[in-house]
Amino acid sequence: MSTTGRAEKTDHRKLGGALYSAKAVPQVVDVPEFAFLAVDGVGDPQQSPGFGPAIAALYATSYALKFAVRAETGLDYAVMPLEGLWHSSDPHFDAVSADSYGPGARAGWEWTLLIRQPVPYTDAQLAAALAKAEAKAEGGAGTEAVGRVRRESFAEGRCIQVLHKGPYETEPRTVKLLHDYLHTERLAEAGRHHEIYLSDPTRTAPERRRTILRQPVS
To answer: How far is 32 from 16, CA to CA, in rounded Å?
Structure first.
């Protein structure tokens, strides 16, 4: 306990070990079941009018929920980083043979943005958090995005992951490392492409960003 009587803040990202600290070469990890708040969408993240509001809705709800839990239980924890699940009906949507994602390839992307919720919470706490997030959004696309926030829990199990350093647009060269490893080890994809954004893009220059690229396998 702290000297003020409030519990010390727990950083579950630091406690996650390899799950939030990838290497520059592919590695195997086993991912247990986690609980998230999620928002679904489609389109180029740089062009879709719903992408930015979805991120804002997730953060606003997650922070409001953290404060509600802390007020009622005394538990304090750091809000987890943004994550994303990506998919497309085009089997080559990740363009692993290219150096960067083209705008045409991104147009059909289906995405689920996520923030993990590391401690239990009640329905009432979530409802209050959503109400605060909606009030903060002040109408329009922001309010609509809050209305699409939902719960999701899943366990990815065995995965291969690698650390990408640099702009998001240059991820294909790192994705290729991941896919080459899968081919060499005769592994099959068993879930959606998963990204964990370790760097805040609003505060980190593109060349310094760090992103975990993860692929469930069988």
So the answer is: 11
